[in-house]
Amino acid sequence: MAEVDVPEPFSIEALCENVARRRGRPIELRAFYESDPTMPCGLWLQMPERDVIYYEGAVSLPLRENIIAHELGHILADHPCDQQELDVYRARLMPTLALNPSLLTRVLGRVSYTTAREQEAEMFAWLLLGSVRSPDAAEARGDASAQGRAAALLGPSS
Ligand SMILES: [Zn+2]
Fold this sequence. Notes:
The chain is of the alpha+beta class. 50% of the residues lie in helices and 13% in strands. Strand 2 (42-46) and strand 3 form a beta hairpin.
């Protein structure tokens, strides 16, 4: 797994800043609100001077963190996209996101987990968030809100 500076206390925004600093390329986080269910809930757009992570805005905080961490996994693993993917997304996204299609050099959408690439990104998100959400990690820094979040993920105690 790629090395990341996990911020203390943890926030997904601070994590993105750490990754951006290490790579020397800014990472922008942008929410989008898309009712089309065939659209991915997260996207990584590689632009000339920066990377942009789009995430579905109408989701809970844990899911938002998961979407963003997944896209960060793609960035850190330097996953390629194929030309067909790029063409499809250029056509679909540009009207929605108001970006210049020619500036887009790579795009990955969070849609299915059938490819090794998607599984790798999802595993990165799972491991990363699992480590910051575990009750031990939360307790160690006395973070009540993280503890509550970890507890919520584990479900009601029986
Ligand atoms: Zn993905």
